[in-house]
Write a structure and sequence with these properties.
The protein is mainly alpha-helical and about 270 residues long. The chain contains nine helices and no strands. Helices cover about 85% and strands about 0% of the residues. The termini are far apart.
């Protein structure tokens, strides 16, 4: 009897696992399909320059403050932790180089993308979802305008262009914050701090961070637009789509970060 009672539970668990797998595959297919059409429309006339500039302002310019604030305190806490750890070995002079490499290779691109996801990605998903449930996207289609070209392509291009620039800003303010803490508060020699950056940081580190940021920007726009564009279920559906967009983009960024890092290190970057 206990064995017979366990069979329905096993069947239910298997059905739930298969349902989750099929749902994930369906979601992946929708993202790939919609992103592919978005890329095709990106290079077809008419070019929506006003939409592109508006998206660049929203994703890039309006994210400067939050990215700069996050970058400053990230650099400060990195310098604080590294200085205290390295002072045990009388090696606090290497703090500048370690912070510079950490920021450029990992911290800046990942945190920049997550901040853009939290601020701009969620807003894109909510805006597109609201347009879907209020049938504004259907109205655009009725007027003979492609909603993908008008709404999605400018957002995708703007995200790929602006996230790397925000990443560079993150690196700059992060280094400034680390200099303030290490030199101004913890007594590290400023000349040694700067020399360690020259010794340890290389152009390849900056290149790695910028390439990662461009890929992450693509991910933010692709995932956010997918969930917003296919939202349904009224106001509750828009909220659900926004949550799924933020969570999905952040998880995808972290997975992509590992894969990109592994590939670049294996390629000798």
């Amino acid at each position: 009897m206990p064995q017979r009672a366990a069979f329905p539970l096993l069947r239910a668990a298997a059905a739930a696992a298969l349902g989750a797998a099929f749902s994930a595959l369906d979601n992946l297919g929708r993202i790939v399909g919609l992103t592919g059409r978005t890329l095709l429309w990106l290079f077809r006339p008419p070019l929506r320059l006003s939409q592109l500039l508006g998206a660049m302002d929203f994703i890039g310019v309006q994210s400067v403050f939050i990215v700069g604030l996050t970058g400053t305190f990230s650099g400060m806490v990195l310098a604080l932790q590294m200085t205290h750890a390295l002072r045990t070995f009388s090696a606090e002079g290497r703090v500048g180089g370690i912070v510079a490499v950490s920021l450029s290779r990992e911290v800046a691109p990942v945190f920049t993308a997550i901040m853009v996801t939290a601020r701009a990605g969620s807003a894109m998903a909510a805006e597109l979802g609201n347009m879907r449930v209020t049938e504004q996207i259907d109205a655009i289609t009725t007027m003979g305008v492609s909603p993908i070209q008008y709404l999605l392509s400018p957002r995708l291009a703007a995200s790929v262009l602006m996230v790397p620039l925000l990443c560079v800003l993150y690196m700059a303010v992060g280094l400034a914050g680390s200099y303030l803490v290490a030199v101004g508060w913890l007594g590290v020699d400023p000349g040694v701090f700067l020399q360690s950056i020259r010794d340890m940081a290389e152009p390849e580190d900056l290149r790695m961070g910028v390439i990662k940021a461009a890929v992450f920007g693509f991910i933010v726009a692709a995932v956010s637009c997918r969930y917003g564009f296919y939202a349904h279920g009224g106001a509750k559906g828009v909220g659900r789509a926004t949550t799924q967009a933020v969570v999905g983009a952040c998880v995808t960024i972290l997975v992509a970060n590992y894969l990109l890092t592994q590939f670049m290190l294996d390629a000798g970057w």
